Amino acid sequence: DPDKLKAQLTAHKEFQKTLGAKHSVYDTTVRSGRSLKEKSSLVDDGQKLDHMLSEIRDKWDTVCGKSVERQNKLEEALLFSGQFTDALQALIDWLYRVEPQLAEDQPVHGDVDLVMNLIDSHK
Length: 123
Hints:
Elements: H1 2-21, H2 23-39, H3 43-80, H4 84-98, H5 112-121
């Protein structure tokens, strides 16, 4: 059902925003862990902190990876649920917006020799 998929995708995007907002907490935690490791005088403490930092990195990467995977599956399901025309219309709308920027009558900026070589290679 396309409407159900759209609702799930919207809810998932909200989850991703929440997850993205937690990235600074993750970074702060990793920095604190590294700082503690540098200040630790016992080898055993340093090894435990290394293990903990590795574990938090792995778990964060897993959560982020699963989130992206979920979004891709939802978008793919939405595409295959008969929403191909919506996706195609979005692409066409984008092309109409971008087309004026790609007009040939606009000046080309950059290295003159490089531009001349590119012009020659396209002839």
